[in-house]
Write a structure and sequence with these properties.
Elements lengths: L1 H22 L5 H17 L6 H8 L4 E2 L3 E3 L2 H4 L5 H7 L10 H30 L2 E4 L2 E6 L5 E4 L2 E5 L4 H16 L2 H14 L4 H22 L5 H9 L12 E2 L3 H12 L14 H14 L43 H19 L3 H5 L4 E11 L5 E7 L3 H12 L7 E3 L2 E3 L1 E11 L3 H6 L5 H10 L5 E3 L18 H19 L3 H5 L4 E11 L5 E7 L3 H12 L7 E3 L2 E15 L4 H5 L1
Parallel strand pairs: 1-12, 2-12, 4-6, 13-17
Antiparallel strand pairs: 3-4, 5-6, 5-7, 8-9, 8-12, 10-11, 14-15, 14-17, 16-17
Length: about 575
């Protein structure tokens, strides 16, 4: 979002500089009106435009970014809630906390919207509290004891203290505003002021368009008439400024001098129309920047590239290499695209299996933690020159260790020769709060747990939190305490889901951003998984979740008062899906 706002502001600034330096003093008023309206819209749209061939040209010198991997997050992946409540009411998704900047942004928009509503109400009161009459398709509102004059859509407001001659001249002027629908322009910028209330350039745009409206109306009103009389009419009034930014006022003191100067100005020569072609290279430059920005860092939902390295002798970028380095299991695939996908999948699985997620837990880090790794696969298929950047040196060290344990690969080839291929790999942790605390401390109070133990002491089905001993695996053999058995079980399930869940599925479904899946299941008296149910943003994610949960191995059953019981378990799964770039799709 921040990246988009910065682009919009930058584009608007460039468009306004072109207007003020080259176009503002020209008498091509209608063209200038089109320029201001179109560029204000283009500044909003261009950041979304990604031109394919531009991205392909720029991409050739970039280190390739492999798809983002989400690992760890055991503190988020496995937790227990009261399954009785979950069974009855379904699993509630906890809303994500709103950042202070979002609160400020939305608050400003609400205030700006209220100000616009106040102005409209004030205008409606003027209509209802003053006499009015129809003149053709126009409603003329007579403002009592006033010399004000302005228009809004098909309403013309005239002070009754204006002379009959002045009123006739003003009516002709305001009719131009009505016929050319200038109120729509101003209302458009009012709406922009609500969304971009913090952006001063929107206010400048509105000021420029309002000035143009007066030039256009003046130019039409004096056609075939004596300009001197029109000047006198402007200069001899006792001006009052009506405080509505979305109306067209006839008497606005700050505009009078500009209007007279522009009326007395000779028409611009047609050769000056060539100045409008300046916008062409400007828009092209913006499109190039916007198309390339897909490779730049974004806050919520894109892959970061750690660094761009110069192509050395013998190094070929992944995007253009004839044959990418691959695992031996990928060698027999038919196309280069399939081998690239196979390579990415195998690296992701390797990292998930081998990364020591307890490192992140031990550092006290909170929230999304991103590690960026760059490395090369040399001419013999070995990993070399591994570099990492992370929020903590321990994470960098662990990331390097894992990448260095990648097996020897079949090297990449270009024009029949083995070459070195550089890679960039983003790895993401999602940690909510202190993981150690979450593993040892139940979300329920001790009194609540005691109450549940008493309630289910003779039951056949028992909530996980009330068990005396959790279901166990081979890795939990020898653990005797209730708390440690529950931690061991939760960690096993968490790690199992991390390794076996097809994380590419969400991206293939077109989903992006944070995705939450909730699943409930039981471990019966025989230690088998039963009754699994899932809730996810897409049915295919629910199917994949159930596949993984139902593939869990047989456990030793949970116990209550020394006897085997069916244990109810709830598991939230959270993962981040980066917005897919066209480069990712190709790879």
């Amino acid at each position: 979002m921040l990246h988009y706002i910065i682009q919009v502001v930058a584009f608007q600034l460039l468009f306004l500089i072109i207007y003020d330096v080259f176009l503002r003093k020209e008498t091509f008023f209608n063209l200038n009106r089109v320029y201001l309206l179109s560029t204000s819209i283009l500044s909003l749209v261009i950041p979304f435009i990604k031109i394919e061939f531009i991205k392909e040209v720029i991409a050739k010198d970039f280190v390739i970014s492999l798809p983002e991997i989400l690992i760890g997050g055991s503190s988020e992946v496995a937790s227990t809630i009261d399954p009785q409540i979950a069974m009855l009411a379904g699993i509630n998704l906890e809303p994500e906390p709103m950042s202070i900047w979002n609160i400020i942004l939305i608050s400003g928009m609400c205030i700006a919207a209220l100000i616009l509503v106040y102005k409209i109400i004030k205008l409606l009161l003027l209509v209802s509290n003053n006499p009015r009459r129809w003149s053709g398709n126009v409603i003329i509102v007579c403002l009592l004891n006033s010399t004000k004059a302005f228009s809004f859509f098909n309403y013309i407001f005239l002070g009754n203290r204006l002379s009959e001659k002045d009123s006739a001249s003003i009516l002709e002027h305001e009719m131009v505003h009505i016929k050319q629908k200038h109120s729509l322009d101003l209302l458009f910028f009012e709406l922009l002021r609500i969304v971009f209330w913090f952006n001063p350039l929107v206010y400048i745009y509105q000021n420029r368009i309002a000035t143009l409206h007066e030039y256009i109306a003046d130019a039409n009103a004096v056609k075939g008439k004596n300009k001197a009389d029109y000047y006198d009419n402007l200069l001899t009034q006792v001006f009052e400024t009506q405080q509505f930014s979305f109306v067209n006022p006839f008497f606005k003191h700050s505009l009078i001098k500009k209007r007279i100067l522009m009326l007395s100005k000779s028409k611009s020569q047609r050769i000056n129309l060539s100045k409008y072609f300046l916008i062409v290279p400007l828009i092209l430059g913006m499109l190039v920047y916007s198309s390339c920005s897909v490779f730049k860092s974004k806050q919520d939902k894109t892959v970061e590239t750690l660094e761009i390295e110069e192509v050395e002798s013998g190094e070929i970028p992944f995007a253009i290499v004839d044959e990418v380095p691959v695992y031996k299991s990928c060698e027999d695939l038919d196309t280069n695209e399939e081998r690239k996908a196979c390579m990415s999948t195998n690296i992701a699985k390797h990292v998930n299996r081998n990364f020591n997620i307890s490192v992140a837990d031990s550092l006290g880090l909170v929230g999304k933690q991103r590690i960026n790794v760059v490395f090369k696969i040399d001419k013999k298929g070995n990993v070399k020159d591994v570099k990492a950047r992370a929020p903590h040196p321990a994470l960098e060290k662990e990331a390097k260790r894992v990448i260095k344990t990648l097996p020897q690969l079949i090297p990449g080839k270009h024009k029949g020769k083995a070459v070195i291929v550089p890679y960039s790999l983003p790895i993401v942790f999602m940690i909510q709060g202190d993981s150690k605390t979450k593993k040892t401390k139940s979300p329920l109070s001790d009194d609540r747990i005691k109450g549940l133990k008493e309630k289910f002491k003779d039951a056949e089905e028992v909530p996980f939190v009330a068990l005396d001993r959790a279901p166990g695996t081979e890795s939990c053999v020898g653990i005797t305490s209730e708390k440690e058995s529950k931690t061991c079980f939760s960690n096993f399930v968490s790690k199992y889901v991390n390794i076996n869940f097809n994380t590419d599925l969400a991206s293939k479904l077109g989903l992006s951003g944070k995705q939450r899946i909730n699943v409930i299941f039981q471990i019966d008296k025989e230690g088998r998984v039963t009754g699994a149910k899932a809730r996810a943003p897409h049915p295919d994610l629910e199917t994949e979740t159930l596949r993984v949960i139902n593939s869990l191995p047989q456990f030793t059953p949970g116990q209550m008062n020394g006897k085997a019981v069916t244990a109810n378990y709830s598991l939230p799964i959270l993962f981040q899906v980066a917005a897919k770039t066209n480069q990712d799709k190709k790879n």
